[in-house]
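A quick word before the example. In earlier lectures we treated sequence and structure as two separate objects. From today on, think of them as two lines of the same record. Here is Methyltransferase written that way.
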Amino acid sequence: MLEVHSTLDFLIDDPLYRTERPYIFTPAGGVMVDSSHPTLNTVRLADVPVTLSDIRDAAGFTLGTAGFEKTDHTTRIDLKRVQDVDVRDQYREETAAVLKQYLKAEHVYYYNVKTRKNVVFDPEEKVDLLDRLAPELAALGIHDFLMTGSQIHEAGYRFRVVNTWRPLLPVIEDRPLAFCAFRSIDPADMVVADRIFPHETFELYFVKHNPSQRWHWLSKQRQSELILMLMDSQAGGARFCPHGSFVNPLAGPDSPPRESVETRSIVIGKCVQ
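And the structure line, produced from the sequence above:
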C-alpha cells in the first residue's frame, strides 16, 4: 500500500475549549482570504505530520467499517458548467438517485452542494456570502459534519448524512482529500464548533490529533471515482468520518490546482437488525 508523508491541520488542544465552544464567524460583506490569513476566530489550528495510506489497491474500506469508501460512477452531467444553477440542480438530483440505489434508501434529501478551488484569491476581493454557487477554497482544518436535531435515530429508521466528493478535473493530484478510519478515532478528539454565516449557522466537528488515528487517501483520483463519507445514527458500525485536504508530496509542479465538487444529503432507510 502506497504511503505518503505530509501534514494535516488539526484543532489544537486549547483549554479554552473546555468551557467555550470554538466558532468561525464570517460577517456580511466579508473578505475572501487565503489559507495564510484565515478568519477562524476561536478555532485554532496547527499542522501535524502524518502518514497517509493509499486505498487505491486496498480492500476492506467501506462505509460500514471505515466510514468512507470509493465507488466508480461516471456522471452524465457537464461538470464544466457546474457553477450554473440548472447544472448544479441536475448534479444534485443525479447524486441523490445514486445514493438511493447504492445505499438501498427509502428517501434521500439533498441539503448542500459546493465547489472548491485551490487558488489564491485577491485578499481585497469582496464576496457575496449569500451566493451559494460561489466556489470556496479547500476547507481549513480536519473536520466532520454533525448530526443533530430532527436527524436522530427513531421510529425504526436509520438516518445517515452522506457526503460525496469528486474531482472536477480528469485526475486530481493537488490537495487531494484525506479521510480517517472510524475505528482509529477517539470520540474525545472531536470538538463541536459553530460555523456562522450571515444567513445560517450550523454545527460541525473539528478534530484534535491523536497518534492512534489512521489516515488514508485515494491516489490519482479520477472524475469517475466518487468518495462517500458518512455520519450514521445507527450504532454497530462506523458512525462518522473526519476528513480534510492535504499537500500531496507526489504532485508534480505542473499539476493543475485542485477543483472539486461535493454534496451532502440526508439518507433515510430502515434500521438494519
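Notice the following. The two ends are 34 Å apart (CA to CA). We will return to this example when we discuss secondary structure assignment.
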